[in-house]
Design a protein that fits this description.
By secondary structure, the protein is of the alpha+beta class. The protein has 4 domains: 97 residues, no CATH class; 214 residues, 3-Layer(aba) Sandwich (Rossmann fold), CATH 3.40.50; 101 residues, 2-Layer Sandwich (GMP Synthetase, Chain A, domain 3), CATH 3.30.300.30; 108 residues, Hotdog Thioesterase (Thiol Ester Dehydrase, Chain A), CATH 3.10.129. Helix content is 35%, strand content 29%. β16 and β17 form a beta hairpin. α5 packs across α7 and α9 crosses α10. It is elongated and about 110 Å long.
Length: 540
């Protein structure tokens, strides 16, 4: 009787003009956040349940008629439980595979890997943020984003959240501050989804622009946002950025707004978080796959933030999976990087392990402060000796970085995280980046003044008693700056129209221009004043 009644209910819901019963259930349990293909899937599933219940009802009648009312009822109930329970289990597995997405991590601190997330876990996180930001979303802002949608942060905040809230989304991935300003001026109010690296670049030149005060919310995730950039963003946009801390495995874990010097993170209400015996952050969350996960971040929870679920506010202590052993001493790379940034000449620093004939040592990739003119006048070798002497005041003798590479920007992924593999490549390479000044970027162009250090190895031995910059180094520099402008590594397919018109010698400053012709072609040009030195077309 139960099977027959439910069979009728499922069957009636399949009539034209009616909503399939499985779709009604799905919408209720997912807060109305549905994936593409859900309606067709639920209609097919409703047909499956209809036929299953009809067969189950007929089978139960036959069993009772054959075995008698008492014995037959027991057997029929047992068979129904097995069939219905088995169908639920199989359908759950099929649904999880049908509505899931694979995210490929960038390997910012370790080896890249693939992580599969179910739509259910993503939908729960979107529903939570939709409720938290209901007042902001009620204003129907236009979502602008500087991040690709195929990352989990982009998928949640620039695809699923605006769709669930009924807000418009600009489809373009914004790469240049000028593009962002243009789109902000065209919108009544804006919800900006971005990264710390873009905010830092935008805030640096924000005084040159008239920035509209129409950003109703500003979120950032990936790398940590420094206090200086957070303050600059608050000044430029009129509100402090909402920082989201988490991982691909766990989803969002905590948030903060750096106001009044507050650096603590507050755990999201549905999430339970604590420090394990080693001090690593451990999370149990409805947004997480698996449900319980231990991250590589060391944390200290605030005692006054404790409630019935445990600590709710914590302070990050750096990545514990970036502890290395150098000269019989265990050192924390994040802690050393933070200490190096206290040196007046250093804007940013990233450390990596360099394997040598006498064992591993540390190498430092350094972004110098713009007012450190010694790099241009004295050369990078002299500046490296200066940094090494200052590092000896802070670090154990054996852990002081031995190799130094100076770059205009650290290599980062789309989320703003420093790419560990790129740091290793820079330290392993003999290619010294030129001193970069007066950078200017638009959506399609990049320009800067470059000074090639006379200490660099590539000036040695090209011509006896006449040092010139080899053409292959000019081409390599153009390729390197193009990848930095694009924001990701791209191998060259060919170089067209390559010309070398004038030699470049040590210490000379040239103006470099890169212009985007299409997604796969960029022109480059080196000039000394009005004198062309080299040019060509990079084909990716």
């Amino acid at each position: 009787m139960i099977s027959a009644v439910f069979a009728i209910l499922f069957g009636v819901s399949l009539l034209p003009g009616r909503k399939p019963l499985c779709l009604r259930f799905a919408e209720r349990i997912s807060d109305g956040i549905m994936p593409d293909g859900a309606e067709a899937y639920c209609r097919r599933l409703t047909w499956v349940w209809f036929f299953l219940l009809v067969v189950n009802a007929a089978t139960s009648v036959a069993v009772v008629a054959t075995l008698g009312s008492w014995t037959g009822s027991i057997v029929a109930c047992a068979l129904s439980a097995v069939v219905v329970g088995g169908t639920f289990a199989v359908e759950g597995v099929v649904r999880a595979r049908r509505f899931s997405v694979s995210f490929h991590t960038s390997g910012s601190t370790a080896t890249p890997k693939t992580i599969v997330k179910t739509f259910a876990s993503l939908a729960k996180e979107v529903a939570f943020h939709r409720a938290r930001l209901a007042d902001v979303l009620a204003r129907k802002p236009v979502f602008l984003s500087t991040i690709e949608p195929h990352h989990m942060y982009g998928q949640l905040w620039r695809v699923m959240l605006p769709r669930a809230a009924g807000c418009a989304v600009d489809p373009e991935v914004i790469l240049a501050p000028e593009t962002l300003l243009e789109k902000m001026r065209a919108a009544e109010c804006v919800f900006l989804v971005t990264t710390p690296s873009f905010l830092a670049r935008f805030a640096e030149y924000a005084d040159q622009y008239d920035v509209p005060q129409n950003v109703v919310e500003l979120t950032t995730s990936g790398a940590l946002l420094t206090a200086d950039v957070a303050a600059a963003a608050r000044r430029v946009f009129g509100r402090a950025p909402l920082e989201i801390f988490g991982s691909t495995e766990t989803g969002g874990v905590a948030f903060r707004r750096q106001e009044a010097g507050d650096e603590l993170w507050t755990v999201f209400d549905p999430v339970k978080a604590w420090a394990d015996a080693s001090g690593r952050l451990t999370v149990s969350s409805p947004f997480s796959c698996p449900r319980r996960f231990t991250l590589g971040d060391g944390v200290v929870f605030e005692a006054e933030g404790r409630d019935k679920r445990g600590p709710s506010r914590f302070r990050l202590c750096g990545r514990m999976d970036r502890m290395v052993k150098i000269a019989e001493q265990r050192v924390s790379l994040p802690e050393m990087e933070a200490t190096m940034c206290l040196i007046p000449e250093v804007a940013e620093a990233a450390l990596g392990v360099v394997e040598g004939p006498h064992g591993p040592s540390l190498g430092a990739v350094v972004v110098p402060r713009k007012d450190w003119t010694d790099l241009k006048t004295l050369g990078k070798r002299a500046c490296a000796r200066t940094l090494r002497a200052k590092c000896q005041q802070f670090f154990p003798r054996g852990a002081v970085p031995r190799k130094y590479r100076f770059v205009h920007a650290l290599p980062r992924n789309a989320q703003g995280k420093v790419r560990a593999s790129a740091i290793r490549e820079i330290l392993a390479s003999q290619m010294a980046e030129p001193f970069v000044e007066n950078e200017k970027r638009t959506a399609t162009t990049y320009a800067a003044d470059l000074t090639f250090d006379g200490d660099a190895a590539y000036f040695q031995g090209h011509f006896p008693d006449f040092a010139v910059l080899p053409g292959v180094i000019q081409l390599g520099t153009a390729h390197h700056l193009a990848e930095s402008f694009i924001g990701r590594a791209r191998p060259l397919r060919q170089v067209k129209k390559m010309k070398f018109s004038h030699v470049l010698q040590p210490g000379e400053t040239v103006h470099f221009t890169l212009t985007k012709m299409s997604e796969d072609e960029f022109t480059y040009d080196f000039r000394k004043g009005d004198v062309p030195c080299a040019s060509g077309v990079l084909c990716f």
